[in-house]
Amino acid sequence: MEIWSHEILSVIGPSNSGKTTFLRTLNRLSDLHTAFRMSGAVEMDKRDIREMDVEILRRKIGMVFALPLPLPLSIFENVAYGIRMQGVRNKHELEQRIEEALRQGYLWDEVKDRLDESAFKLSGGQQQRLCIARTLAVQPEVILFDEPCSGLDPVSTAKVEDAMVELKKKYTIVLVTNNVKQAARVGDKTAFFLSGELVELDKTDRIFTAPQDRRTDDYISGKFG
Ligand SMILES: Nc1ncnc2c1ncn2[C@@H]1O[C@H](COP(=O)(O)OP(=O)(O)O)[C@@H](O)[C@H]1O
Ligand SMILES: [Mg+2]
To answer: Does any domain span residue 3?
Structure first.
């Protein structure tokens, strides 16, 4: 399969269909699992990712998880952490990068006057957008989202979706979602996974109006899953 920049690829499928495993293959998080075995190849910019420095690869390919996991630090420090790891010491540059990341994460206006407060004081939806900002702060090229709205209410979900749609202008986005409607709303293309297998990948409109595979049709129409 090919994943294009400036697009959102939605990945749908019932639980245990291999969606998370697929994402973790893309940034080699699966390498950490001793039983993991992989055949075939993943290429980024025509380079096999196994030949790339894993630290550089993971910086290029950021990941946002289902449960927002802020660090037990202030809002400011949560975003500053990764930027400092990149060796940025200049206060002005640091502040600029933090503001930019929080703006891109659609959170700036809500937190700009309380950057020194604990990240845990934020609502669940705000914490998730903080985690997105934290990922953006280290200037990745690709962002992998693994069910980023599964714990959020509809209002927070809509804000995260807005952020993703805005982000695709700059980044490549893969969105794993257990919410078929979300895939239809934000995905340019949609991939359907079942039992560790890619069943079908097409433009989102096509997947939802004229899927080629019976199993895709059954899944999106709610016959199983
Ligand atoms: N392509 C695959 N081949 C074999 N096993 C797989 C494959 N993809 C996933 N699995 C296994 O299936 C289980 C569920 O995978 P997971 O990626 O967590 O699914 P999901 O995120 O869709 O719920 C895991 O134990 C995983 O190791
Ligand atoms: Mg999963």
So the answer is: no
Which three-class secondary structure state does DSSP give residue 149? Answer: coil
What's the pTM value of the predicted model, to 2 decimals? 0.93
Which tokens is 126 given? Answer: 């705000």
**Protein residue whose Cα sits closest to atom 25 of ligand 1:** 16
Find, among 130, 197, 132, 201, the residue nearest to 168 by Cα.
132
Residue at 1 is within a domain: no
Looking at every residue in the chain, the average pLDDT score rounds to: 95
Reported as a single tens digit per residue, the pLDDT across 120-147 is 999 999 999 999 999 999 999 999 999 9
Whose CA is closest to atom 27 on ligand 1? Answer: 21
Pocket of ligand 1 (CB under 6 A): 13, 15-21, 196
Place of tokens 């994943």: 3
**123 alpha carbon – ligand 1 mean position (Å):** 31
Q: How many domains is the chain partitioned into structurally?
A: 1
pLDDT digits (tens, 9 = 90+) for 77-95: 999 999 999 999 999 999 9
* Ligand 1 pocket mutation, candidates 19, 21, 33, criterion most atoms within 8 A of CB: 21
